[in-house]
Write a structure and sequence with these properties.
Bound molecules: 4-methyl-5-hydroxyethylthiazole phosphate, magnesium ion
Number of helices: 14
Distance between the termini: 51 Å
Largest sheet: 8 strands, parallel, barrel
Order of helices and strands: HHHHHEHEHEHEHEHEHEHEHH
Helix content: 55-70%
Structural class: alpha/beta
Length: 353
């Protein structure tokens, strides 16, 4: 191989490794996602293994940083990064670029290594999609403290409740309308999405990923018997928040493999909204929130939660709470919502990152 080829390989191997590290640390420290962190680490090691088949002395000998005509020639904006998202995007572009240059340079003399680098490049395209989509949905959901579920089939009542909940400080609203014809459900969801978006509140649709996508909602919530999360993701046209109900640790572990944006944990207490379901208690909230710490997946505790018992729920480890009847079936919706929101915020004070 020509000396200049070694020089190109050395530079692009470094470039690719450095980009990998930026992405890996993002998955590790920003996403708290152990699975993606491990995947990035393995990816980086595989790249090192491919390059280790080359003559490492030749690679180092070809390096000549001081005589590099490209050093110090910065493109406009190269040193400007608005935030960490920008740095992540730049690293996600730099990595496949470097891999492409490596593959092209290796092709004439090291076709096997070139093929392996090409495989890594294709693998990264999927990895990039997983990272970016999970990050944008997770980021949106991370500020949710009070999540209100509106269980109702009457459009006028739904929209009035949406407005009152927004006024009371709800961070996220889920529409759970099990008996509405599709056309009506779609129109009501569209209106809810518009009102929520104007107020900076997240909108979620229960069960119906198709309606959520068509109406431009922020997400969909899926139960144990609904469409699997992985299939729901295929329907999404843009990053979609996907929630999954869990009622025990086995379901939680299985849910994590599907990588939802958040999981619901409950019913914590017995509830008239789901009268036939056995409550799982605060123990499940403690166990589940501890287990979720390094998974990069959000959560809401749910089921029979009120302003009176929410302290126990937050003390058990919950960072967000979902409620239905305590807010939507009382005379003063806005007041109840505001009261609960203040209480949760007070309990989580000092907890914010
Ligand atoms: N999933 C588990 S409990 C529950 C759902 C939808 C109902 C929560 O409603 P409430 O009225 O806050 O107990
Ligand atoms: Mg369901």
């Amino acid at each position: 191989m020509e000396r200049f080829a070694y020089r190109i390989i050395d530079a692009n191997f470094n470039r690719a490794r450095e980009a990998c590290r930026v992405i890996e640390d993002f998955c590790r420290f920003a996403l708290n996602n152990a699975a993606l962190t491990v995947e990035l680490k393995q990816f980086r090691h595989q790249l090192c293994t491919v390059i280790s088949t080359l003559d490492s002395t030749m690679l180092l000998a070809a390096r000549n940083t001081t005589a590099d005509v490209g050093t110090g020639q910065q493109a406009q904006g190269q040193m400007v990064r608005a935030d960490m998202n920008d740095s992540l995007t730049a690293a996600c572009k730099r990595l496949p670029e470097a891999l492409r240059v490596l593959a092209e340079t290796l092709k004439p003399d090291e076709p096997d290594a070139a093929r392996s680098v090409e495989q890594l490049r294709y693998r990264f395209y999927t990895l990039e999609k997983d990272i970016v989509l999970s990050w944008s949905a997770a980021q949106k959901f991370s500020r949710v403290r009070l999540y209100v579920i509106i269980t109702n089939d009457r459009p006028c009542e739904i929209l009035s409740l949406v407005n009152s909940c927004i006024e009371g400080g709800a961070d996220c609203i889920q529409l759970r309308a099990k008996g509405m014809p599709d056309e009506k459900l779609f129109a009501t969801t569209q209106e809810m999405v518009r009102v929520c978006r104007d107020a900076g509140v997240l909108s979620i649709v229960n069960d119906r990923v198709d309606i959520a996508v068509a109406a431009g909602a922020d997400g969909a919530h899926l139960g144990q018997d609904d469409l699997p999360v992985t299939h729901a993701r295929r329907i999404a046209l843009s990053p979609l928040i996907i929630g999954k109900s869990t009622h025990n640790m086995d379901q939680l572990k299985n849910a994590i493999d599907e990588a939802p944006t958040y999981v619901s944990l409950g019913p914590v207490f017995s509830t008239g909204t789901k009268p036939d379901v056995e409550p799982v208690g605060l123990e499940y909230v403690s166990q589940a929130t501890a287990y979720l710490k390094d998974k990069g997946i959000g959560h809401v505790a749910i089921g029979g939660i009120t302003a009176e018992n929410v302290t126990q729920v937050i003390q058990a480890g919950a960072k967000a709470v979902a409620v239905c009847s305590v807010i939507t079936q009382v005379p003063n919706v806005t007041g109840s919502c505001g009261n609960l929101k203040r209480k949760i915020e007070g309990l989580l004070e000092g907890d914010r990152v």
